[in-house]
Specification:
about 575 residues; rod-shaped
Length: about 575
């Protein structure tokens, strides 16, 4: 898309003013060359027609300016890149501003706040982490020894393994290293560096910023601890990162990106740790370092002020005579006790190798009190580490006691749970056994019920058959009863009718007036016999009639039994 004309004019004017200020205040020994390059960039910028071309030119001018002139242009560059290239380009500029403001906590907080307004991404998280690392370094530098010990103890005891977010764990480990580095360069720092290195290897980062920062910090720490092999490995890692950055920047035509200081430190440190590199590597690094110094006047100026690379290289190739005057010159200005101790030790060795006993004696005389100071410094650092270790031990002891108490409590609860579980299991087992018994009983009962049901069905069939037989018997009994009743009625009627006539005639015989006494007496007796037996027959007929009507019949032997009587 076309670059907005108004924004272009504003940028050009601002850049011209800043460039003029920078040129007027000077750039060192290469003023005319720098001024010429800047003017070429300004001419190119005034002719640019696209945002991409303008941004590339401004990046070139930004890289050319010295650090104290970059902030204002960096802010303009950030606004321009964010509006034209989006979030990824804007994050790159913010990382550059982080490097510029690395010693300004207020500015770093503002940069972090600006980053937090952008959409979530891995690059954003790494950029925020990059700024927070510098912020932690600033905070560590401002702490007193007592506060450092307390904060280191608190940081170490808050285990980073319990932090779920990868970037938060990295920030925690970086912060621990920053605080420990302010107190000591001893085993405690080396241990936490190993933790940090393992975490970084667990999930490689996509940007160069943090890897470059970590490799540079690690190489410096190992160098100060005289761990030459580890320091050389860290510097090789730093050079690999720098080469990757240089390739990436050149692909975007950023020709003036200030990566040379990282190369200068890496080459100088590797020459300083010459015991861990080969002669061929020493010659290679020394040649590359001189080529870098020859191409950049500011690097050459720093190089010539101390001649450290020359000293280390001469010591590596065994030219002690040439190294002696340079060692003396470096010791005249060096104040750092660690570096001064290293230079004095090299001076003593070089003086002995060249046979300059007086110089060796003078160096030893100076070296002994320095060594005592260095030992006292290390003892103090060790005491600090011991104090931290004691604090950590106290915290760990308390944590272990709490953990032990918690485990006891958990064990108690677990035992209760086991007992309850055992009881519940026993109850469940008893219930299961009872259930199985009930199931067996139910099965047995079911079997019995089936058998009983089968028997009942058989009996029902038998009863059904018996009922049919009973109904048939009842019908036959009813028929027999009917026949009996009919028969009794018939007999009763048959007996009663003639018996009435007989009795009527008997009465007439008895009551006949014309008969003589003898005849009358005989007939009367005969009539009485007839009447008596007729009465018995009448009574029997009544009983038969009662039976015919279903009335109960009780036979009385004296009165009810019919017996003919002929005694009269």
């Amino acid at each position: 898309m076309n670059f907005p004309r108004r924004l272009l004019i504003t940028a050009v004017i601002a850049l011209q003013v800043m460039a003029a200020m920078a040129i007027g205040r000077g750039f060192g020994s290469d003023l005319s060359s720098t001024e010429g390059v800047l003017r070429q960039h300004l001419d190119s910028l005034s002719q640019a027609t696209t945002a991409s071309d303008s941004i590339d030119i401004i990046y070139g001018m930004f890289d050319m300016l010295p650090p104290d002139r970059r902030p204002a242009m960096g802010h303009e560059l950030y606004r321009l890149v964010r509006s034209e290239e989006g979030i990824e380009g804007a994050l790159g500029v913010l990382r550059l501003l982080t490097m510029i403001y690395k010693d300004n906590p207020e500015a770093l907080n503002a940069i972090i706040h600006e980053m937090s307004t952008m959409p979530e991404s891995d690059e954003l998280q790494e950029s925020i982490l990059f700024a927070r690392i510098y912020l932690a370094a600033n905070q560590a530098r401002g702490e007193s020894p007592e506060s450092l010990r307390e904060k280191i103890t608190a940081l170490i005891t808050s285990d980073s393994n319990h932090i779920s977010d990868h970037y938060d764990r990295l920030l925690h480990l970086f912060t621990v290293c920053m605080y420990v580095r302010e107190m000591t360069h001893g085993p405690l720092l080396a241990e936490n560096l190993r933790y940090l290195d393992r975490e970084l290897r667990h999930r490689p980062l996509s940007t160069y910023a943090i890897r470059r920062q970590y490799a540079d910090m690690k190489a410096q720490i190992f160098t100060e601890n005289d761990e030459a092999a580890d320091a050389v490995d860290a510097d090789r890692e730093l050079l690999a990162v720098i080469n990757g950055m240089d390739s990436d920047y050149r692909s975007r035509e950023r020709k003036h990106m200030a990566l040379h200081w990282f190369r200068y430190r890496a080459y100088t440190r590797m020459l300083r740790n010459f015991n861990a590199i080969s002669d061929q590597e020493a010659r290679q690094y020394y040649a590359e370092l001189n080529a870098l110094a020859d191409s950049l006047p500011e690097v050459r100026a720093v190089y010539n002020s101390l001649h450290y690379p020359d000293i280390f290289y001469l010591l590596k190739i065994g030219d002690d005579a040439a190294a002696l005057p340079l060692l003396k010159k470096a010791l005249a200005t060096e104040t750092n006790i660690s570096r001064r101790r290293f230079l004095l030790r090299q001076l003593i060795d070089a003086a002995r190798h060249t046979g300059d006993d007086a110089l060796a004696l003078a160096a030893v005389t100076e070296y002994n009190p320095l060594l005592e100071d260095f030992i006292q410094q290390k003892i103090k650092e060790s005491e600090q580490e011991i104090t931290v270790s004691h604090n950590l031990a106290s915290v760990h002891k308390q944590a272990l006691e709490n953990e032990l108490e918690m485990r006891r409590e958990r064990g108690h609860r677990r035992n209760i749970a086991i007992i309850c579980s055992a009881i519940a299991l026993a109850v469940a087992l008893a219930a299961l056994i009872q259930l199985m018994i009930m199931i067996n009983r139910c099965r047995h009962t079911e079997s019995q019920l089936r058998k009983t049901n089968s028997q009942l069905i058989q009996r029902r069939n038998i009863l059904r058959n018996s009922t049919d037989e009973m109904l048939q018997a009842v019908n036959e009994a009813e028929k027999a009863q009917h026949d009996k009743t009919t028969f009794i009625k018939y007999i009763s009627s048959t007996i009663s009718l003639p018996l009435s006539s007989i009795m009527e005639y008997a009465y007439k015989i008895i009551d006949a007036p014309d008969q003589d006494e003898t005849s009358r007496r005989i007939l009367q007796r005969f009539a009485e016999v007839i009447e008596d037996n007729s009465a018995h027959l009448r009574k029997s007929a009544r009983h038969l009639k009662a039976l015919a009507h279903g009335e109960e019949f009780q036979q009385k032997e004296s009165n009810d039994t019919f017996r003919p009587n002929f005694d009269r």
